[in-house]
Amino acid sequence: MALLKVLLLLLGLGVSVNSHVSLHKRIIGGQNCDEKERLYHVRLEGNNGTETSLCGGSLIHPEWILTVAHCWKSEPGWTTTATLGVHPRTATQEKQIIQHNPVIYVDQSHQQHDIMLLKLQRPVRNIHPVRLPRCNNRLRIGATVQLAGEGPTTIGPNNQRSLSAPLLPHLQCVDMIVSGFFFVATRGHLFFAEALNKDMTLGDSGGGVVFNKKIYGVIAGSGEDYAFRNPVISMVVCEYMEWISKTIGLK
Hints:
The protein is about 5% helix and about 35% strand.
């Protein structure tokens, strides 16, 4: 049963796109994030002239954003724009087009994992990056973590997700409980988080999962069409800290 749940979740990891706008799906059952937290949250928008896509990310260094690899649009004609200062809405926003190639984690078997670093064109001076984890104190089952996204999804019959929810005036935060860890060769090191009547949706992919004010996870997906049926899955940041530190130049 657990394996079936994992397989069903992984089917919903991609960010779907139609001729006008991607599935702008967001945190359900959360609350407004505090005005003094999540200042490092980044909006990542892809565009090829006729289609758009939406993801989240976290500023972890003045020049680097941490997100998931499936948020990158590699097809010709796509550009990705990072918007910094999206929370609080009173902040001064800064937009930068990502011009460097993404840095995606590749393991010893030459398999990509669903975690990615994006380098900015110029350092961000007015936003403090999120703190990286202390991996001698790892997440455990039962820990309470906080996820964030840019607004709720309207729920239809049988908790079917709506595609028409507008962007809310506040970033939305939600607390969930870590309920399991697992590894999938084509995705990497992941964990479950869940809470009653709370969920994320695909537009939240790439956002940070925070524990003790440090980023311990990166949102990777949930059930695609219906809310509340599956836990949220996220990448385990501590499994990638050596790669992150080497890439962004931490000692």
